[in-house]
Amino acid sequence: MADTTGGIEAFYLENRSFSPPDSVKSDAWITGSEEYEQAERDWQGYWARQAGDLLDWSKEWETILEWDRPFAKWFVGGELNVSFNCVDRHVASGLGGRVAYHWVGEPGDTRTITYADLLADVERFANVLKGYGVGKGDRVAIYMPMIPELPVAMLACTRIGAVHSVVFGGFSSDALRDRINDAEAKVLVTADGGYRKGKANLLKPAVDLALAACPSITDVVVARRVGHAPSGSEERTVDMTDGRDHWWDSAMESVEASCPPEAMGSEDLLYLLYTSGTTAKPKGIMHTTGGYLTQVAFTHKYVFDLHAERDVYWCAADIGWVTGHSYIVYGPLANGATSVLYEGAPDHPDKDRWWQIVEDYKVSILYCAPTAIRACMKWGTSYPESHDLSSLRILGSVGEPINPEAWIWYQTTIGGGRCPVVDTWWQTETGAIMISPLPGATTTKPGSATFPLPGISAQVVDESGSPVSVGGGYLTIDRPWPSMLRGIYKDPERYQETYWSRFEGRYFAGDGAKLDDDGYFWLLGRVDDVMNVSGHRVSTTEVESALVDHQSVAEAAVVGASDPVTGQAIVAFVTLKSAFTPDQDHGEALRSFVADRIGKFGRPKTIIFTDDLPKTRSGKIMRRLLRDVAEGRDLGDTTTLADPGVVEEIRARASVSPTEE
Ligand code: WTA
For atom 22 of ligand 1, which residue has the closest CA? Predict the structure, then answer.
């Protein structure tokens, strides 16, 4: 984390507590501790009330919760359809003309998609999928840039009860292939490419490479994006495989307009989303229907104090990650919100792109990652200051711990001192926000996610699993919540082992946290071998196994080192086989090798060549030491090393190795 002492300390002390002004307070849905007490008295009843108030069910549930630890079933016996809840019912209640998405393409093209437009597209695309034989329970892989066809494809799956597995468009073809094969997806929905930082990134070549080894895929739908380039840019041709590949537009033309929603069981699988853990193999996190939609709708409404009839909400994440699933697609649509959907980078064509969008669309709620805030801080206040940001009302943060300095900058420079900042802690596995202030109800402290939401029970525990009341420890959750993961696809043992075995009776999140004297939660980052790079989870093992797959690499150890902008940066210590020369070019070759294997976001920022790695007597690589080296800190006690000389050697090398600009 960035240094939080020194210059900002005085400011921090003065601004330790921030209560939103009355103008915001009077608007808020939840205004006091009564809500928390009520939820605590009868937490199952509390969630059932939310499920009933926020969603339309075609059949009521019989049992609120069946809990056979660690397996939960919520609203058992109930039936509903997600696309119906996200689209149809708003149109039916006369809101068809309301904008669902103000879409902004990076090159400057825009589209306005109303709820009625969305419904028409979702129904047609559901028929397209049906035409390829997709039915209830079948898996559909989706690999797309941030274009409106992406939420359409997701909603179309939910309409017919198919399970989507969205693979972030920045993943490599190898990563795409592995995810498709694990899910045994029948159909892949993709695009020819997308725009990012002024360039057309082609997706179809990666798709073709992946599909050479994906026997389960029978059909591929390709949306045109870069082929529809605005005038002036070059037209691109895309290889289409006869019989397998279909253009989105022609597929949509050749089907019927109407497709009735399927009634789905509350516990039917809604989607898979693969996430990194402590091994190289990504985990297919399973989310189901009723509980998931309840908690994303609840949190989206109350954490952001959403007033759908007038707010313009913008979550600047990518739909390829869980933040986009829950807070670009399902939460906002379930609540009938109007969202901005932006395709590109925050600094294209200039570093004020975001603030231009906020001004153009009068965005009132902004939700983004600390990395982005820190990057904006670095670029300077002149960019936000040259725009009218007075429409902003609520600011959210997610994905990594936000340092107080960035929190305060966000609150003052972007929020003009009037907007509450909600720092929201949650995970792919939790499905929805778990720890967060409620604007109007919670007095915030810069850098703290404050308290678990009503209905949520989280504790910080020590090594032995005993709750601590003040001080540091491990973040755990001791009772089920509606949007919790239902398991890891095809691997119930790994689910039990990864999340429920470290502390008896508790879900262990993998994060360290501390409680201050006032009971506020402060998230401290991962305590396992998972790195958090710009809010993206990357496992050290995933990068290590990519490295050792290279013919020149004998051994590799990867650590996340503190980075002032991205939170953590990937640093790889690599021992080459003797026939290879450790030099700058070789470092570059290894970096792009890893990028090809995982995706650019998994590429090490720095590679440090070393003749040996520091190991304990039992042969375990000493990561703490490597992290210290990577962060340029003094080394601690090194006596457990097999060969203490190695450390000096590594330290000397650290200053002369290829590093990204
Ligand atoms: C981290 C992203 C501190 C944490 C929604 C968690 C946070 C991991 C916060 C999940 C926050 C997320 N403060 N850390 N407000 N939000 N994290 O699965 O380490 O991509 O375990 O879900 O991000 O990352 P994931």
Answer: 427
* pTM (two decimals): 0.92
Query: In this structure, is residue 520 part of a structural domain?
Result: no
Q: Is the CB of 510 under 6 A from ligand 1?
A: yes
Ligand 1 contact, 353 CB (< 6 A): no
Q: Identify the bridge partners of residue 101 per DSSP, sorted by sequence position.
A: 113, 339
SS3 66: strand
Tell which one of 276, 450, 511, 529 to mutate to probe ligand 1, the residue whose CB is within 8 A of the most ligand atoms: 511
The encoded tokens of residue 387 equal: 């725009």
Q: Which amino acid is at 54?
A: L
pLDDT at 5: 39
CA-closest candidate to residue 168, choices 374, 53, 320:
320
Query: Do residues 435 and 521 make contact, with C-beta atoms less than 8 angstroms apart?
Result: yes
Indicate whether 557 and 486 sit together in one domain: no
The CATH code of the domain that includes 504 is 3.40.50.12780
Whole-number pLDDT of residue 637 = 66
Residues 240 and 384 in one domain: yes
Output the CA torsion sign for 398, 401, 363, 36: positive
- 17 within a domain of the structure (yes/no): yes
- Identify the three-state secondary structure at position 235: coil
How far, rounded to the nearest angstrom, does the alpha carbon of residue 533 sit from its chain's CA centroid?
A: 12
Look at 620 and 25; give whichever has higher pLDDT. 620
The residue whose two tokens read 């590093």 is: 659
- Please determine, for residue 20, whether its predicted confidence score (pLDDT) is greater than 90: no
Residues 78, 166, single domain; the answer is yes
Residue 236, pLDDT score: 66
| 645: CATH | 3.30.300.30
Contact between residue 340 and residue 312 where contact means Cβ atoms under 8 Å apart: yes
What spacing in Å lies between the alpha carbon of 399 and ligand 1's midpoint? 4
Compute CA distances 242 → 190, 218, 239, 245, whole Å.
Answer: 16, 11, 10, 6
Helices (H), 416-508: 492-500
Residue 647 lies in a domain: yes
Domain hosting 633: range is 534-660
Does 188 share its domain with 223?
Answer: yes
**Same domain, yes or no, for 338 and 446?**
yes
Q: Calculate how far, in angstroms, residue 65's C-alpha sits from the geometric centre of ligand 1.
A: 26
Q: Considering its fold, how many domains does the chain have in total?
A: 2
